Amino acid sequence: MTPAPAAVLAALLTRWQHHFDAARPDDLARLFTEDALFQGFAPAPLLGRDAVRTYYEHVPPGTRASATVLHAYATGDDLIGGIADVLFTPPTGPDRPARLSVLARHTGDRWRIRHYHVSG
After folding, report:
1. DSSP element (H, E) containing 13
2. Global pTM?
3. CA distance linking residue 109 with residue 120, whole number of Å
4. Which of 3, 7, 36, 88 meets the CB 3.0–4.6 Å disulfide criterion with 32?
5. For the CA atoms of 12, 115, 34, 54, what is the dihedral angle to 10 degrees?
6. Are 69 and 82 in contact (CB under 8 A)?
7. pLDDT (tens digit, 9 = 90+) per residue, 13-41?
8. What pLDDT, on a 0 to 100 scale, did the predictor assign at position 116?
9. Confidence (pLDDT) at 2
10. What is the average pLDDT across 54-68?
11. CA distance 49 to 30
C-alpha cells in the first residue's frame, strides 16, 4: 500500500532541498530515475540522471530552495504526483518563486523523481 502521497512527496522534496542547499549535484541526481524527464529554468528539457547532475552543477553556489507541497496524489502503489511552491533564493539578487510539478516512482527501496517541471 502506498503511504500518504503528501507525506511521501514532502519527504522526497525535503531530501531534494537538503542536497540543493548543500550544492551536492551527485546526491541530487540520485534522487531521480535513470530516465527522468527534467525541466528546470533552462529553456531546454533534459533527459536522464546525468543531465540532471550537469544542470545542478551549474546552479550558482549559495543558492537555496524552500519547497511546500500544495497537493499530492497516488496513481497506484508505485507512482505519486503533486505540485509544490518553491522559493529559490540566490546569493545575490531577488528571490525567485516557482511552481514545481513532480511525478515520483518507487524503485527498489526508495522514491525517485521521474518527472520534474518548474515554472516561474
Report:
1. helix 5-21
2. 0.94
3. 32
4. 36
5. -90
6. yes
7. 999 999 999 999 999 999 999 999 999 99
8. 98
9. 54
10. 96
11. 7
Evaluate whether 116 touches 46 at the Cβ level (below 8 Å): no
Task: Considering only residues 93 and 96, tell me which one the structure prediction assigns the higher pLDDT.
Answer: 96
Q: 3-state SS of 27-44? A: HHHHCEEEEEEEECCCCC
Residue 60's pLDDT band (boundaries 50, 70, 90)?
very high
Q: How far apart are CA 29 and CA 19, in angstroms?
A: 10
Q: How many CB atoms lie within 10 A of CB 34?
A: 12
Q: Which of 56, 60, 63, 65 is nearest to 28 (CA)?
A: 56
C-alpha atoms less than 13 angstroms from C-alpha of 55 in its C-beta half-sphere: 22
Tell me the residue length of the chain. 120
pLDDT at 108 over 90: no
Residue 30, phi then psi, degrees to nearest 5: -70, -15
Distances (CA, A) of 114 to 27, 41, 59, 119: 15, 17, 21, 17
pLDDT for the residue 16: 98
Rounded Cα distance between 112 and 33, Å, is 6
